[in-house]
Amino acid sequence: MQKVMLPPFMMACFPFLRWLPTITRQDLRADVIAGLTGAIIVLPQGVAYAMIAGMPAEYGLYTCIVPAVIAALFGSSFHLISGATAALSVIVFTTVSQFAAPGSPLFIQLALTLTLCAGVVQLIMGLLRFGAVVNFVSHSVVLGFTAGAAIVIAVSQLKHLLGLDVASGSTALDNLQLTLAGIADVDMNSLLIGGTTIVTCLLIKRYLPKLPNMLCAMILATLLGLVLGDVALVGAMPSGLPVFSLPAADVVSIEKMAMGILAVALLGLVEAISIARSVAMKSGQLIESNQEFIGQGMSNIVGAFFSCYVSSGSFTRSGVNYTSGAKTPCAAIFAAVFLSIILLFFAQYAAYIPIAGMAGILFVVSYNLIDLHHIRDILAHDKKEALVLVATFIAALVLHLELSIYVGMLISLFFYLRKTSCPQIEQLDPRAYNVPEALQADTEILRINGSIFYGSTQYLQKSLQASTAKHLIIFGRGINFIDYTGAQMLADLVKRNQQQIYFCYFKSRPKLALHAGGFGQTFSAMTFYTNVQQAIKALDQSDAHSSAHTPTHTHIHTPIQRIVE
Q1: How far is 497 from 343, CA to CA, in rounded Å?
Q2: 478/459 Cα distance (integer angstroms)
Q3: What is the mean pLDDT of residues 120-128?
Q4: Edge-to-edge strand list for the sheet holding 471-475
Q5: End-to-end Cα separation, the chain, in angstroms
Q6: pTM for the full model?
Q7: Which of 257, 359, 273, 255 is nearest to 309 (CA)?
Q8: Residue 506: closest CA among 487, 525, 481
Q9: How far is CA 123 from the centre of its chain?
């Protein structure tokens, strides 16, 4: 049978056409098994995450169906499973609850609007090839945010674990105060169910790791609730597939939720890319970030019209998908099909799940979100990143959760700009480069380790002008680019004529920048030496023909590290 070659345009618009024809019968068999496992795992998670987001229980399961299929078809990862996540669920709640009561029709519509807008942002970023943007959300920001989100989730569920009927606050601290104020009215049945759920999850995970610990704990909590009676239940959940929904096209609401929209869009992409890369390290697959952006954007856009709130990659489900033997993205599609079947025939039994039991599961989810190993490592070895982590964590507790991401990003950006605006300048020993002894006192060899741009020119200009050596050799192998302001600074340095400047080891891109614009005349007369021996030879010849008095050498009184290369 002759293989049909599709045009590149079709392959770009429909990336699943690249892998779909390559699937074998063995691949499908493995994907079916992985999909069934994933559907069982997601059942308690979907209901729990919807509870965090302030959405009806079925919306959490819908979010694990439609977005999972779209992301699998239009993303780049073979093993990433998209759906509802704990961190995004918290941001949905903290963002939308400012404008509507959780669970109300207005709340649901605003959550869908937030999902649609976040998807549009993600899709645009993917189409504009902004895949590298997520690299600016540092690992410390993600660690601090997820740890903060874990505390926010746990505190928000504390009232359900204790069976208290208290209002919800806008921050974790508010929720804690409200819960503690009503602590005298603890319902012992709810506490028993919640505590049993937590212990069951932990014991099964420890001693029977092959069993779905959360599903088993939820079943036990349901049975215990039926025995004890008189406890709050999740309530009836409609049996059926995701239904068509229409997000609100309200410009005013979109403007109010703008910060939350950007936060969930960025965090969703960071989660998806991080998880996809993590699994790819084991599978050996290459991940295309821009295509993953497009896949995540498409999944949220389509999902918003099928009763789904914001989705992203799920670490638990993706990990289970890979370890269960999934071979292609069809595993995510099979998981969605199996979950749909469960919804059609077994949704009615969700009415008997105690809310205290779901709170217990969310306590376990919260604990799993905190990456203690990496947090300890950062706190012990990197003070700047530790500050970013702690600041993000504190911001998550005292501010609206979505704002904590911006706090962490701004602090990270501050440290990055501070570092790049002060490039390291190494002062090399002339003796190591066989500079004639007579010229060593009047020769400075400096290596600039960093790009020369508008943010670093003031520091570099001050450092370079402080040199009073007759001959100044500048190594450029550590310079990756030079912008207009940087070229102007170097041109001014050359025009001063107070010393002979020798450029050595410059890369082609920085050299082109110096010859462009209005500086071509200044630098065209100069020689860019390919090695230091050429520069020293030119220096020796220049000194031999010079009759000027050799200035007394003084040291550079700037933060320049003197080393012998």
Answers
A1: 80
A2: 16
A3: 95
A4: 528-529, 500-504, 471-475, 443-449, 424-428, 561-563
A5: 63
A6: 0.76
A7: 257
A8: 481
A9: 16
